[in-house]
Amino acid sequence: MRLENKVALITGGGTGVGAATARLFAREGAKVVVTGRRPEPIAAVAAEVEGVSVAGDTSDPAHAAEAVAAAVSAFGGLDVVVACAGLGIEALVGDMDDGQWQRVFDVNLTGPMMMTRAALPVMLERGGGSVVLVSSTNALAAAPASAAYDASKAGLNALARAIAVDYGPQGIRANALCPGWIITPMGDESMDELGAARGLGRQEAYDLASADVPLRRAGTADEMANCCLFRASDESSIVSGTTLVADGGGQAVELTSRMFAT
Question: Rounded distance, CA 70 to CA 11, Å?
Fold first, then answer.
């Protein structure tokens, strides 16, 4: 088992990529602490994996301290942090108010920083560890009406590099994961909006969103969990400060020449 004797803390662990990662990590031998805003989903996931749940807002520094303390109390330490919690608010720059901008950054960027900051002393006591920040391909290319989301995710990639540089000499690795469209509750919501606008069902909307992706499909939460597992485990022991794009090849496509495709 690739995470035997490891303790992992997963934010946003009640649904989607976070829940899939919690389940996979437990199967691979890890003891798991799951956090999220809604108590019921994270409690259900924690019970399933024989772990611990800590409800709270990822942007609250007191919650970060509480979650790390729970890992230490229940399992004796902490080796891995996977930051999956995130949100997006659709608005053009000219239409976005200060509160919307700040909320997106609080959850998507400040929250992972605070959770990592709280975890670092405990991870350093164990001689090192791995931080996995779940970002987005929006960090690499902009989407319409997504300025706050795009900018916060770009900052998350930079944060992973900064952690890697600052703490690498002490055995801490940090990497970002950039999913494309993933079949999750958050993805479903976006596809339902697209489907309503285009007169399509959810799967048809996913197909449309993936039409220019070389693999011609959205990813799954389990596939993203496997990416997180690689970054968390010793199999990637020399990998740090990098960004893994997991989007079915979408970033490889030069869209203005797609009309020549057969």
Answer: 13
Q: What angle do CA 168, 170, 115 make, to 5 degrees?
A: 75
Angle (deg, nearest 10), helices 221-232 and 16-27: 50
Own/partner contacts of 253-258, CB < 8 Å, gap of 24 or more, are 253/212, 253/213, 253/214, 255/212, 258/212
Contact in structure between 172 and 128 (CB atoms under 8 Å): yes
Give just the sign of the alpha carbon dihedral 162, 33, 179, 186: negative
Our answer to whether residue 206 is catalytic in this structure is no
Q: What is the pLDDT of residues 63-75, one digit of tens each?
A: 999 999 999 999 9
Q: Which parts of the chain register pLDDT below 50?
A: none
Catalytic entry in 75, 149, 167, 206: 149
Separation of first and last alpha carbons in the chain: 44
Distance CA 240, CA 208 (A): 34
Cα–Cα distance for residue pair 78/132, rounded to 1 Å: 14
pLDDT at residue 262 in the model: 60
